[in-house]
Design a protein that fits this description.
Length: 212
């Protein structure tokens, strides 16, 4: 009798595992570095097979006197974004300028089920000779990442380019922050398509050191 119960339990467990929607065996694997935006289907999994996103995971800090910029970046594995599955980076940030807190979204790091709703999100891989944002200092086969950065307080968005480097034998990232300062107007009574939005972080390069 015990043997029958055990066999039945194992069968049910196997069926349950097979039915999991995130089971990689049921998905079509697309290497992240080969993925072209907009080409994935619901049964596709854009997977970071070579761990290209891993060097950017962590807590990173830039300081210059009383001005600082902090990123907390995590990696989502086999994340269902409601369109397809993907490995991606997501995170939040804090910017303090001359001792005054300009924006701090760090507490939201694990708030969103859909990771693209975080203030930092994405997984675009850039080569050193990328025509949009080339890197003269990069090694021939070096990979960087391009992410979206946003400010939910005023719906402004921008682009965040990250390069993994080493500073005094400590892991670091070179970050170029480029906020467009533009947000979409959703009020149907306003005829303007776009309007200016305050930029939370000045457009510039920042070197952020990895924190323990």
């Amino acid at each position: 009798m015990k043997k029958i119960i055990l066999i039945s339990a194992l069968i049910l467990f196997a069926i349950s595992c097979k039915a999991q929607p995130g089971n990689q065996a049921l998905l079509n694997i697309i290497p992240l570095q080969d993925y072209e935006l907009g080409t994935a289907n619901s049964n596709d999994y854009v997977k970071d097979l070579d761990g290209l996103l891993d060097p950017f995971v962590g807590t990173w800090l830039y300081t210059n006197g009383t001005t600082s910029l902090k990123f907390i970046i995590k990696k989502a594995i086999n994340h269902n974004n409601n369109y397809y599955h993907e490995d991606m980076l997501y995170g939040e940030y804090e910017y303090i300028e001359n001792g005054t807190s300009i924006i701090n979204s760090l507490s939201q790091i694990d708030q969103f089920e859909l990771k693209f709703k975080n203030s930092i999100a994405g997984n675009t891989i850039l080569l050193n000779n990328d025509v949009i944002f080339p890197c003269q200092q990069c090694e021939p086969n070096e990979k960087r990442v391009e992410l979206i950065i946003s400010n939910s307080a005023n719906n402004s968005v921008g682009t965040l380019y990250l390069r993994h480097i080493t500073v005094n034998n400590v892991p670091a990232i070179s970050a170029y922050v480029y906020f467009t300062g533009i947000k979409g107007v959703q009020d149907p009574n306003i005829n303007e398509i776009n309007q200016e939005a305050p930029v939370p972080i000045p457009r510039d390069y920042y070197t952020l050191i990895k924190q323990p």
